[in-house]
Design goal:
The chain is α+β, with helices and mostly antiparallel strands. It folds into 2 domains: about 80 residues, 3-Layer(aba) Sandwich (Glutaredoxin); about 110 residues, Up-down Bundle (Glutathione S-transferase Yfyf (Class Pi), Chain A, domain 2), CATH 1.20.1050. The chain is about 50% helix and about 5% strand. Helix 5 runs parallel beside helix 8. Bound molecules: glutathione.
Amino acid sequence: MQTDNNQHITLYQHPKSGHCHKVSLFMHLIDVPFEAINPDLGAAEHKSDAFLNMNPFGQVPVIIDGNNTVSDSNAILTYLANTYTHEPSQWLGKTPKEIANIQRWFSISAYELAKGPAAARLEYVFGANIDVDRVLSASVSLLTTMERHLSLQNEKYLVSNRLTAADIAMYSYIAHAPEGGLSLINYPNINVWISNIQSLANFVAMQSSPIAEARA
Ligand SMILES: N[C@@H](CCC(=O)N[C@@H](CS)C(=O)NCC(=O)O)C(=O)O
């Protein structure tokens, strides 16, 4: 479903947002050119009428691709795979079971990842108030579950031993968890999975923040 669209995609993002990084990482991996615009979240530009007309939820990431405006990181991964890859099912699943497994990680990224490692990082990187006990316990629970999943699978990636959108959806906030005071030292399989992704051709890192003293 490749388009003839020669114009660049515009990505509205924040350079330290994992939700945004997964979109820019995916566009690099599939070699889709784009221009990044960083609205001033501190000045609430993402709550302006102009921004809310693009995404009524007032959140980044949003992409504009010609006549198509798409928001929500996992929705954008789905759009990009369907629009710009030769074989979208390679990323989104080839069988009902694979599709389900990839959707499962999309859901985990939108709930467990967002309420755990992403939230832990919000405090140190953005000065947000968080419920530390709840966020740390959610984070450890997710990391422990991912570690077990990867060790049971004995595979390089989260689904079907190949890189899929599930890995892209989960990578950024897991790899940057130490910025929220979460040590990854006890999760050997997660570390291997992170290295597998970082070794990909065209990999680009998210802008880093200082590693916080480990608190979980
Ligand atoms: N479900 C959304 C969540 C996006 C999100 O939480 N974006 C944050 C930046 S990481 C944001 O824009 N926060 C500002 C706000 O919610 O007011 C997605 O996956 O894209």
